[in-house]
Structure formats: structure tokens, C-alpha cells
Amino acid sequence: MDNINIIATLFGTLITLLLSIVAYFIKQLHTDFKSMEKDLVEVKTMALIIKTEFKSGNDLLNQKVEFLEKRVSKIELTLFKNQDYEKQ
Description:
Layout: H1 2-87
Keywords: Membrane, Transmembrane, Transmembrane helix
Transmembrane segments: 6-26
């Protein structure tokens, strides 16, 4: 009977030790997932910032192109008027 108690105590201790090790690794895994989630949020934020910067840069470039197109149109119109005036 004494041997059975010793074996039961050893198995109980062994199971407790193994469960403690599993709990430790699960805690580490949870911590890693939390840090990965934080990193993912940072990456999403940076991607949104970069996207916004490119969009604003693109909009500004489009405005400049439109302005230059209008300017070229006015210059062409002025040149055509001058050519018509010179022909007369």
C-alpha cells in the first residue's frame, strides 16, 4: 500500500510538472501573439500613412499637370491668334 502511495505521488508530481511546463509555453505563445498583434497594427498604420502620402503627392502632381495643360492651351491659343493676326 505504501508503494502505491509513493507511485501515485510521483505520478501526480510528474503530471503537475508537465502541466506547469505546458502552461509556461502557452503563456510565452500568448505573449508572442500579443507582440505580433502590436507589430501588425504598427505595419497597418505605416501602410496607411504611406498610402495617404502617395495619394496626396499624386493629387498635387495631378493639379500641377492640369495647371500646365491650361497654361499650354492659353499659350497655344495666343500663338494661333498671333499667327492669324500676322496673316491678315
